[in-house]
Write a sequence for this structure.
């Protein structure tokens, strides 16, 4: 796992963080909005990275957890007037529970079958959101959601305060995931990805590792979903349809698997691409489609992976295990 | 009683359409382990091409033929240029084929616009058979007939011909099949073309039934997947039984539990997979 020296590796993230902290007053409100969206989607993408990058399990139903978090906000605030202090634990808790149930089913399969079963489970969640009209208001979704009522001296109604709120959420999720993947548990997840047989022989409980990774990943995605609903003020079935799940997969693949910050970068690129391209041309689906194919053809190991490979080619660094 | 009979009939006829779509998909899956999310686009594009042919010539059979063949060629090109390199890379397959699906969706929007169309069925296939209180639309009977013919032909080709034996050998073990001199690449390409052909043909047949409109591709795609997954990848018999099951579940779900209609469709699939991860008739 040794790349460039640790101090070197920190330079880019610290600079990026400084820019993210200092930038808002200088940005147009539109760009700030997109940046907020990127941060929230980055949470979801990083959560999928735990599953796809570190465990090697490609899920096609990750939007389900985002959806559970988002609908928790929608239903609890619109029906019961619940505050952020209630909604956040319920949303994340429900996402964890959902992942705990889905994980039991999905982890019976591997490879293609894992993709298929997660697709099916994602469709179950989408189908409920779309059709269970008395709870979810179906296709119309739930709109008019308020911004979170946090005990802070300033209101989160404005774009800049909410941006910092999303940034805090992003850093929290990043911190949690970073600690997990650098813990002995996280290392053994990579071990499971590389060879289940070897890990089993070494005495690890392979299924339990996969299961815990699956559940944690779902919980973090649910956290992203809670923020997403608060940001949008709206939640609808499109938030958890297949194309959302695939988009998150693209973010992870584009940024670089098993790098956490790579998928966050991928999230930013896709959010900006989607929005900016649609300003200039109506053919943004075409360009998004090309982005999917281009990622696989030209950057199969993602942006961060490609950058690392280049830097390792120029300086004699120790070999890194193949992802 | 009438309610049950007509709902069963409706379920079977929708299942027939799904079989046309999923029969090829399951062979592609079984043989190449390629997850093709473009399959729904073949259905939609087939419908659009068929629509254009009908507008120009007024011939329904010609619409099916041209729609199916045109999209089969498109599928082969896509496979030759991109997909065959991605063997074993599930993530790459998913992202590439979604990319194609988005591109096709957009191109269809450019060429045919955003309005929903229905392919006009020939006069002989309109109307209904009336048996007292029951009422069976001729077009639904026609769909069941087409699916039955296709099922018999596919079964015959797979089980009773030399090419079929090669295909089954490739499904079972591509490496061994190659080892005994079967041209696995050519067989794979043929199966991919067949899958696209059937899906596009289903698009024309279905275009007179569910319509041809933007979004139909991603709407029908999950159904095809459910059929393949429930039946087991690579199993034609599984696809047939899976189609009927999904058609019936979908119909009864929508009729009896409208709020949970997708749930009644996808939840049994998840349950079947949890018990048999390879589907009812699939082999690992």
């Amino acid at each position: 796992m040794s790349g460039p020296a640790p101090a070197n590796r920190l330079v880019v993230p610290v600079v990026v963080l400084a820019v993210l902290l200092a930038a808002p007053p200088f940005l147009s409100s539109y760009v700030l909005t997109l940046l907020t969206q990127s941060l929230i989607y980055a949470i979801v993408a990083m959560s999928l990275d735990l599953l796809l990058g570190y465990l090697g399990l490609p899920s096609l139903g990750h939007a389900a957890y985002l959806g559970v978090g988002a609908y928790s906000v929608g239903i609890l605030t619109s029906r019961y007037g619940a505050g952020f202090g209630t909604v956040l634990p319920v949303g994340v808790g429900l996402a964890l529970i959902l992942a705990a149930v889905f994980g039991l089913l999905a982890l019976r399969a591997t490879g293609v079958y894992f993709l298929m079963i997660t697709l099916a489970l994602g469709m179950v969640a989408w189908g409920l959101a779309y059709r269970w009209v008395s709870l979810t208001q179906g296709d119309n979704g739930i709109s008019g959601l308020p911004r979170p009522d946090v005990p802070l001296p300033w209101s989160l109604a404005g774009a800049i305060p909410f941006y910092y709120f999303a940034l805090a959420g992003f850093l929290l999720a990043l911190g949690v995931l970073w600690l997990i993947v650098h813990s002995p548990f996280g290392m053994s997840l990579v071990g499971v990805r590389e060879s289940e047989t070897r890990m089993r022989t070494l005495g690890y409980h392979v299924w339990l590792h996969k299961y815990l990774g699956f559940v944690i990943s779902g919980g973090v995605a649910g956290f992203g979903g809670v923020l997403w609903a608060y940001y949008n003020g709206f939640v609808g079935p499109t938030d958890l349809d297949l194309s959302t799940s695939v988009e998150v997969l693209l973010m992870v693949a584009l940024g670089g698997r098993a790098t956490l910050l790579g998928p966050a970068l991928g999230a930013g690129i896709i959010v900006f691409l989607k929005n900016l391209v649609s300003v200039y041309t109506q053919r943004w689906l075409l360009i998004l489609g090309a982005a999917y194919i281009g990622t696989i053809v030209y950057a199969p190991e993602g942006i961060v992976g490609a950058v690392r490979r280049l830097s390792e080619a120029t300086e004699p660094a120790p070999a890194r295990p193949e992802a | 009683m009438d309610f049950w009979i007509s709902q069963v009939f409706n379920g079977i006829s929708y299942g027939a359409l799904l079989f046309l779509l999923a029969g090829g998909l399951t062979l592609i899956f079984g043989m190449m382990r390629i997850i093709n999310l473009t399959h729904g686009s073949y259905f939609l594009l087939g419908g659009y091409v068929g629509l254009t042919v009908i507008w120009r010539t007024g011939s329904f059979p010609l619409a099916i033929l041209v729609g199916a063949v045109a999209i089969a060629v498109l599928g082969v090109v896509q496979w030759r240029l991109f997909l065959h390199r991605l063997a074993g890379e599930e993530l790459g397959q998913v992202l590439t084929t979604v990319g194609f699906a988005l591109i096709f969706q957009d191109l269809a929007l450019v060429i045919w616009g955003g309005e929903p169309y229905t392919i006009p069925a020939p006069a002989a296939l309109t109307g209904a058979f009336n048996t007292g209180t029951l009422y069976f639309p001729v077009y639904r009977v026609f769909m069941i007939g087409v699916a039955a013919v296709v099922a018999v032909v596919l079964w015959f080709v797979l089980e009773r011909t030399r090419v079929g034996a090669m295909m089954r050998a490739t499904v079972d073990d591509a490496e061994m099949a190659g080892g005994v001199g079967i041209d696995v690449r050519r067989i794979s390409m043929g199966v991919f073309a067949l899958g696209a052909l059937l899906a596009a043909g289903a698009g024309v047949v279905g275009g007179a039934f569910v319509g041809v409109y933007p979004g139909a591709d991603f709407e029908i795609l999950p159904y095809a997947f459910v059929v393949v997954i429930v039946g087991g990848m690579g199993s034609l018999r599984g696809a047939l039984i899976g189609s009927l099951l999904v058609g019936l579940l979908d119909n009864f779900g929508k009729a009896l539990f409208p709020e949970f209609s997708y749930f009644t469709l996808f939840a049994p699939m998840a349950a079947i997979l949890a018990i048999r991860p390879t589907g009812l008739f699939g082999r690992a």
